[in-house]
């Protein structure tokens, strides 16, 4: 569910931060840029884990900012990238996730994972047969087995398990 992902990126440090500890400034810049952002094929970035390499610093000729170089991967005009690792939320296929129902609509369920509130389970992905109760704004799974049937209600604030 959570992975530590190696990333390389260019970090620009403005002149007003030159007197500060360089690793603290870089950590702040990286957290500002990546935290709470979704990177394609990586996942939801949570927080900086560590900085693995800080390379040479080049002063930009246009605004006087440091451009920090780190890894061996070249970027524009021979400027290299800083190497670091980020904690990312990346559930695997068929992984069971536990969340809380934020709201129920006729379109489906809105789920919170406490640190991430934008999960939506569409109505057609709910267990069949299910129906929406407009009066109570909840979903009802009409569970059936050999011994009979039961209506299992899913309401706001219920803790549920679902598969990604």
UniProtKB/TrEMBL annotation:
Residues 9-64 form the RNA polymerase Rpb7-like N-terminal domain. Keywords: DNA-directed RNA polymerase, Nucleus, Transcription. Pfam families: RNA_pol_Rbc25, SHS2_Rpb7-N. GO terms for biological process: transcription initiation at RNA polymerase III promoter. One of its GO terms (cellular component) is RNA polymerase III complex. Residues 95-162 form the RNA polymerase III subunit Rpc25 domain. InterPro entries: NA-bd_OB-fold, RNA_pol_III_Rbc25, RNA_pol_Rpb7-like_N_sf, Rpb7-like, Rpb7-like_N. SUPFAM superfamilies: N-terminal, heterodimerisation domain of RBP7 (RpoE), Nucleic acid-binding proteins. It is found in: Nucleus. Belongs to the eukaryotic RPB7/RPC8 RNA polymerase subunit family. This is RNA polymerase III subunit Rpc25 domain-containing protein.
């Amino acid at each position: 569910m959570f992975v530590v992902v190696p990333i390389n990126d260019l970090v620009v440090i403005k002149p007003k931060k030159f007197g500060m500890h360089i690793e603290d400034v870089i950590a702040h810049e990286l957290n500002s840029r990546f935290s709470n952002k979704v990177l394609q094929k990586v996942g939801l970035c949570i927080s900086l884990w560590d900085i693995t390499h800080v390379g040479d610093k080049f002063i930009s000729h246009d605004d006087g900012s440091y451009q920090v170089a780190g890894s061996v991967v070249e970027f524009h005009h021979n400027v290299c990238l800083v190497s670091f690792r980020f904690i990312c939320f990346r559930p695997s296929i068929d992984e069971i996730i536990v969340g809380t129902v934020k709201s129920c609509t006729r379109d489906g369920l809105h789920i919170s994972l406490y640190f991430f509130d934008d999960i939506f389970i569409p109505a057609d992905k709910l267990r069949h047969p299910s129906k929406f109760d407009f009066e109570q704004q909840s979903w009802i799974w009409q569970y059936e087995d050999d011994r009979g049937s039961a209506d299992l209600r899913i309401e706001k604030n219920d803790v549920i398990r679902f598969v990604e």
